[in-house]
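Closing statement on the S-adenosylmethionine sub-project.
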Amino acid sequence: MVTYGDMENITLIATAKFGLEKIVKNELKALGFNQLAGGEGKVEFAATWRDVPRTNLWLRCADRVLLKMGEFTAVTFDELFEQTKAIPWEELIPVDGRFPISAKTVKSTLHSPRSCQAIVKKAVAERLQAAYGVEWLAETGPEYAIQASLVRDTAVLAIDTSGAGLHKRGYRADAGEAPLKETLAAGLVRLSSWRPEQLLIDPLCGSGTILIEAAMIARNIAPGLNRTFAAEAWPVIDPQLWQDARAAAQDAIDRNGRLHINGYDRDAASIAIAQSNAAKAGVADDITFAQKELKDLWIDRQYGVLISNPPYGRRLGGYKEINDLYLTLNKIFRKKKGWAVYILTADALFPRYFKRGKPDRVRKLYNGKIRVNYYQYHGER
Ligand SMILES: C[S@@+](CC[C@H](N)C(=O)[O-])C[C@H]1O[C@@H](n2cnc3c(N)ncnc32)[C@H](O)[C@@H]1O
């Protein structure tokens, strides 16, 4: 196995859900990356080994960080096999490395993910066996999960550096009902106009994910500080690089100033979960949670920001109840024109009930596999 220098040039790919690619690009720019190539669901960028810890620790809205190993055209199984085998996998994967393969194909001649997966596995295995002079690969060591993606006959092979998806921040023990993924919750905050000095509320906060992500953004807490990553077990990356990135992230936390973040939910158990999650995330003192029915919410401020993800109806609760919720929201905020209101829902009828005006913007996003809209009402400045 080759040991690379810290500054060796590599190519990383941050994967993201549809609709969040631009936010991930902005996050990468903020981390100092300039040459960013975008595609659907991913952002590719030139990097060095030092950036593997940095991006994994800091990207809030990306799903994973992959190390790109190769890109080529493949329309036959032979081409896929030979070109996969031509990649020097042994420079990265040690003799005992585990290398599970996942494959996806979109609009490609090789349309069976299962066949592509089997071919890539065989090609990588043959390459490693020849490089190490062994007939058997035990696969008992660190994980190098290989993703093979074929889109319009172009194959991209990459190794997952993250391990568990980046939405797993390590603060969520209990999920509560229909929680949002942390990456999407952070995306909702980033797509909003909220600034840390402003009042922020989520009146249907469930386990509090949106507010916890907002507080972590405001406090500049790296989302990955409480977890580990697959590439930490890779001998090719100097452990010092991980230690340095963690120490820098620890130093970057900003505890100055007061935040004004409030979460409510009618369900006492959800509020208890939200409080416990906020404590684990290190933002317990920044968010006030209370059990409250939406109709009992009293807003006396003229300005503020609301970001929320009401029940969708098709997943939880009934339609009548959902309509009543929208009407209550409308009643509370119809005349509060200084409030920016951001609602994520799969229910296309929402704007019909929330009559403050037409949404300034409707963004298409995905909550897991459900197509949802993010209704944005900017409010008067
Ligand atoms: C889709 S969940 C929100 C999930 C949340 N974003 C999270 O990440 O955990 C909707 C929440 O609305 C709450 N809810 C429903 N009707 C309510 C009402 N009338 N008043 C207050 N909360 C309500 C439910 O208890 C549930 O926790």
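The pocket of S-adenosylmethionine is lined by residues 176-180, 204-207, 209-210, 265-267, 270, 293-294, 309-311, 325 (CB under 6 Å). With this model delivered, the sub-project is considered complete and its resources will be redirected to Aim 3.
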